[in-house]
């Protein structure tokens, strides 16, 4: 399992370096200033994991849902392609039975790769604290990284972007204390919307 986690983190790091390379291309392009620099966003996602019953019965699905989360956040766009914010939410994990509330700072990078600017690849990193609400109320560190696509939503006139719809894959890592509680990593698939 440790090898799988390490491979996932290395792949995420490799994809991040690819997106950062795209930033140098993006920096050379002209940015169109937007009037509002603040944002408010929310996201919903479901952690998925391999179904252990699949090995015994191939009629079972290979993946199964392992929980659900809702998060919201607000922040500031530093430029047309980068933003920072503060995010929080509630997460339910079915296995193990866990209800948690992460509070984390988030950095999102969405480079412009084409002239139409309607779809952008994104990479996002978050780091903060997670508070467990149903098991002796302990806390730990929270780390997340996600890759996705942002799709521009235009206003009624079609002249200005009013928001973005996001589709993403995320890896979350929960490092809990006390140390006898098992640390937890999840692979999540989700949707989000950001109001600009």
Automatic annotation (TrEMBL):
Pfam families assigned: OMP_b-brl
Keywords recorded for this protein, A-Z: Signal
Protein name, entry field: Outer membrane protein beta-barrel domain-containing protein
Secretion signal, residue range per the UniProt entry: 1-27
Domain Outer membrane protein beta-barrel: 16-195
InterPro entries tied to this protein: Beta-barrel_OMP
Keyword Transferase set for record: no
């Amino acid at each position: 399992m440790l090898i799988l986690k390490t491979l996932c983190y290395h792949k995420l790091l490799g994809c991040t370096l690819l997106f950062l390379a795209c930033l140098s291309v993006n920096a050379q392009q002209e940015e169109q200033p937007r009037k509002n620099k603040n944002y408010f966003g929310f996201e919903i996602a479901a952690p998925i994991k391999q179904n252990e019953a699949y090995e015994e019965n191939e009629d079972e699905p290979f993946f199964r849902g392992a929980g659900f989360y809702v998060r919201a956040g607000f922040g500031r766009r530093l430029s047309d392609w980068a933003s920072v914010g503060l995010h929080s939410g509630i997460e339910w994990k079915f296995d193990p039975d866990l209800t948690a509330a992460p509070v984390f700072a988030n950095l999102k990078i969405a480079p412009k790769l084409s002239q139409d600017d309607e779809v952008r690849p994104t990479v996002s990193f978050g780091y903060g604290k997670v508070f467990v609400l149903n098991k002796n109320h302990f806390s730990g560190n929270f780390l997340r990284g996600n890759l996705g696509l942002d799709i521009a939503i235009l206003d009624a006139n079609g002249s200005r972007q009013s928001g973005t719809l996001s589709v993403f894959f995320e890896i979350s890592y929960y490092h809990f204390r006390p140390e006898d509680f098992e640390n937890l990593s999840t692979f999540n698939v989700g949707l989000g919307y950001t109001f600009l």
